[in-house]
Amino acid sequence: MSALAQASASDAYSIAERLEAGLKGAPRGLIIDGKSVQSVTGKTFATHNPATGKEICQVAEGGVEDVDLAVRAARRALENPAWRDMSAVDRSLLLNRLADLIERDAQDLAVLECIDNGKPATLTKAVEIEGSIKTFRYFAGWPTKFGGETLPVSPRSGAKILNYTVREPVGVCGLIVPWNYPMSMAAWKVAPALAAGCTVVLKPAEQTPLTALRLAELALEAGIPAGVFNVITGFGEAGAALVDHPGVDKVAFTGSTEVGKAIVRGSTGNLKKVSLELGGKSPQIVLPDADLDAAAASIAAGIFFNQGQTCTAGSRLYAHSDIHDDLLARIADHAAKLTIGNGLDPAVNFGPLVSEEQWDRVSSYVEIGQREGAELVCGGSRPQGLNEGFFFQPTIMANAASNMRIVREEIFGPVLSALRWSDPEDLVAQANDSDFGLSAGIWTNNLKQAHRMAAAVKAGTVWVNCFNLVDNATPFGGFKQSGWGREHGRQAMELYSEVKSVWVNLS
Ligand code: NAD
After folding, report:
1. Residue whose CA lies nearest to ligand 1 atom number 22
2. Which of 189, 243, 256 has the most ligand 1 atoms within 8 A of CB, as the residue to mutate?
3. Taking residues 146-170, what's their average pLDDT?
């Protein structure tokens, strides 16, 4: 059991109290060139605790001029010999030192994320903060292993030629991340970018700016040179300014498909390299021979973890008629056992949605589903007794059909849309009938069926008899409108580097 889980409820509350007291006073500044600074316009915005709806603190609102300052600082740092010429071993050491500092502050970071995002602190520490430590440690291993090749070219002249490739950092990277896993999404981008020798300007989501700022402070404490890791807090306009800036060589974005498309349009000025991790509407396909206990537990976790605000959430359930009712009853049972409340309480495993806007969005989809003919099995509204904050019950909608909006659109909340099937012929076609292709779950004990379906499903990740397993060693990303490129593994290092081919005439 983690240290935080062992801590009493009052411990997490008292950490939150201490952190909030420290955040009062001057607005939290942007991090530019190693310093915390207010925005050029002096504008600020409030960040709120979703469990109470109350303001935590004011944060500097970065705009076009601040983005320009941050990009210039990142450019200077890119060309600074202290970073540019740093040995692979030293770069590795710095990333490991940053991982050590995240580990040292894990409890505070988990509580900070909890008050800013709403997610339960215990789960945040176990999943997101531990995950970020692993991400920095994993990518700390790459600088000493990521290099080019010597290639057997055959020049027509018969000349003796040595040809080799080298990997160079792609340059200044604009990293734009969403609010659902603020710390992990930042780590997934910052770690490979720095491992490849790039410098970065990170733009966290306006709903959850606090852990990104803390991460940049820890990077400075670890000894990462000033200007290598800058943070611009603010709204979509700040993200758009980063996408538009001619001094940015690459944009890495995680967020909605709609904004992803705007980023592609906005990045054409200097033809930035762009990678995108976008939305999803992942199917969970359950065959009649599946282990229903395991499937129900994992399907419930796959849609209700993080209050359903997960890009890979298994939000479309395709259950065979023979087991449909039994399976739904079991999933509903898991939903009923979730402990909903303020995530500072270590017993809580289901917190509020991130904002009022998100609450309204999720609630409106439940209404839309019912209007379109789906049946509400459980949930659908605010849990009793939780009158403040943005709490929404875990929700299951049955009798859903392929053409319904609750099956086609990403709700990004704790809503499972269940469809019944009996004809195996068009099952995969139904599962593939989506604009998205991020992930899929397949539940069966038939080995051949499992492999056939894994091959036929159009998704970047397929889980067989498991769900939502993610590891830095294996690529993560989407088919279709779920994105461009892959994070994690060697693929992430490739995203943040250019290949140079060198020809040397030895004749
Ligand atoms: P969002 O697209 O609204 O915002 C994401 C980020 O983009 C924020 O920092 C926001 O300020 C910024 N932004 C907004 N408009 C911009 C613009 N015009 N130009 C540049 N930046 C802009 O997404 P969200 O609501 O914060 O997050 C939810 C979405 O993220 C969901 O669709 C979810 O599926 C997706 N997501 C995907 C993955 C993945 O890996 N595929 C992971 C997590 C979340």
Report:
1. 236
2. 256
3. 95
